[in-house]
Design brief:
single chain; 135 residues; alpha+beta; five-stranded antiparallel β-sheet
């Protein structure tokens, strides 16, 4: 399983919207049914996205993330009017359940640390799409 993060260009606050959230969930759900790519927990912040993903060995993560970024960009810049993303993304291969728990606890509290909500559970742009065995 990988932990993935990518950010908007110049950290512009473009992402925390219902449209982006819906597009993210739809893309991830289709990826699971069509390509066996499982997006587990995620948090969409105003200027970046964090998620956990498991992919088949023959699927290139960078290419898949690029398609996800293109899909989300259509929600914030429909005519391609501005550059939406920083180049690339950060990925980290999780090796055990402890590192997953540590990463998830940090990620789920992002909206609280940013002052967007008082409780992480109140942030509307987070969730879980496919339950991945974390053991």
């Amino acid at each position: 399983m990988f932990f993935v993060t990518f950010c908007t260009q110049e950290r512009r606050k473009l992402l925390a919207t219902d449209a982006v959230h819906s597009a993210f969930v739809a893309f991830a759900s289709q990826a699971n049914s069509r390509h066996n790519v499982a997006v587990d927990r995620y948090v969409i912040m105003p200027d970046h996205v964090h998620f956990f993903v498991r992919r088949p060995d023959d699927l290139e993560l960078g290419r898949w993330v690029g398609m996800l970024k293109q899909t989300l960009a259509k929600q914030v810049a429909p005519a391609g009017t501005l550059p939406v993303w920083q180049r690339g993304f950060f990925d980290h291969l999780l090796r055990n359940d402890e590192s997953y728990a540590q990463k998830w606890n940090y990620v789920r509290e992002n909206p609280v640390r940013a002052g967007l909500v008082t409780n992480a559970e109140d942030w509307p742009y987070s969730g879980e799409i496919v339950l991945i065995n974390r053991a």
